[in-house]
Amino acid sequence: MIRHLGKDPIIHTLADANPVPVTPLDPAQQTRADALLQRTVTAPRTPAPTRHRVTRGWAAALGTLAAALAAALAAVLAGLFAIAPATASPAQRVLLEAAGNVGPEPVRTGEYWYVRSEIQYIDDSAFSREDWVSPHRTLIRDTSEAVRRAQETGTTSLDPDLIRVDLTSDDQTPGMLPPRFAYYGWGEMMALPTDPVALRERLVRDSAGSGHSDAWNLWDVTTGLLFFSPAPLELRRALWEVAATIPGIELLGPTTDSLGRPATGVQIDFGAERLGHYAILLDPSDGTVLQIENRDSAADDVSYRYTLLESGWRDDAPDPDPPICGPGSEPYRSC
After folding, report:
1. Distances (CA, A) of 299 to 27, 60, 75, 170, 250
2. Distance CA 275, CA 296 (A)
3. Roughly what angle, to the nearest 10 degrees, separates helices 233-243 and 90-101?
C-alpha cells in the first residue's frame, strides 16, 4: 500500500505543495475534501505479488498517513476553492458560469486574430477600431480622427485620408486602451498558466509596477485579454475564474449593450483609486465579453465604452501607413 501511494500523483502534488496553508473549510468544502480523501485511500490498487500481514506498527503508520493526507488535502482544496467558493456571490456565479461555458474555440484558419469594435467617449460620436494581431506584429485602424473632423464640419461622410493603419508593435497582444496596454507578447500570452491559482499569481506579479492595486491590475488585464486577445480556450476559462476572485465585483444583472444585444452586467468600483466605476457586459452562455464600460460613478453616464462587433481569424492584414511623425516614430505619441 505504501509503495503504491508513493507513486500516486496526488501524493506528489501534495508533496510539491508542502508546506501548505491551513485554512478552515466551510461545510460544503469539507464534504468535498472528505469525499476526495475517501476515494484516494479506498481506491482499488493492483495487488502486490506477495501478500504480507499488516502489523500494528504499519497500521498505525497508515493511520498517521491518512490523517496527514486529510489535513494536506483540506489545505490544498481550500486554496483551490478560493477561486470558486461554495458560497459565491451573484457576480462570482456569473463569472464562473462564463468560465464553464466558454467556447467553442475558433479554429485557427489564418495568421491574424482580428477584432472589430466600436468605441465611444462621452459627448463624442462613436468610431470603429480594427485590430490585427499575429505572432509577428499588431496593426490598428480606427476612424476616430475622421469621425472627429466630420463632427466638427457637420458632415456624415468620413475623409478616407484621415483613416490610418498603424503598425503599433511587434510580437504584442493589445490590451484595452492606447497607450495603457495590458501587454503580453504573443508567445508570453500563449505560455500563461491555465491553472487559475498560478495564473492569478502570475498576473499580479507581472502588473505590480502599474502603481494601482492588485484588484485594478487583475481587472484591467483579465478584461483586456478576454476582449481583445486570441487566448486559447483553457486560458480564457482560467481568466474568468481569476476575474471571479477580484474583491469588490458586483452584479448589475440583465441588460443590453449599445447594439441591443442581451447581456449580463458585472461592475466594480475603483473610486478610491480615482479610477471610477468599470463594468463588463457579457454573455455567460459562451463566455464572450460584449462591452467594456467606464463611468465616474455608478450613477453617471458612461465615460467610454468598447463594444465588440466582430472577432475571428484572418489570412492577411492591410499594409501600414508611413509613420505620421516620420521614420522611426511611434503611433499615439506626439511628434
Report:
1. 39, 64, 42, 40, 14
2. 7
3. 180
Cα separation, 204 vs 215, in Å, equals: 9
For residue 239, give the CATH number of its domain: 2.50.20
Do both 231 and 287 map to the same domain? yes
The answer on pLDDT for 8 being more than 80 is no
pTM of the model: 0.71
For residues 68-82, give the mean pLDDT: 42
Rounded to whole angstroms, the Cα distance separating 226 from 176 reads 10
pLDDT of residue 182: 53
Residues 268, 253 contacting (CB under 8 angstroms): no
**Grid coordinates given for 24:** 478552515
C-alpha distances (whole Å) from 126 to each of 151, 177, 248 are 11, 15, 30
Number of domains in the chain: 2
pLDDT at 71: 44
Helix boundaries (H) for the chain:
2-7, 9-16, 27-42, 56-81, 90-101, 144-153, 186-190, 196-206, 214-228, 233-243
Q: Which residue range(s) make up the domain with 66?
A: 2-81
pLDDT band at residue 29 under the 50/70/90 scheme = very low
Does residue 30 fall inside a structural domain? yes
170 pLDDT exceeds 90? no
Task: Using alpha carbons, select from 266, 288, 187, 200 the residue that is nearest to residue 239.
Answer: 200
Closest by CA to 190, choosing from 96, 285, 100, 113, is 113
DSSP 8-state secondary structure symbol assigned to residue 122: T
Asked whether residue 146 falls in the same domain as residue 30, the answer is no
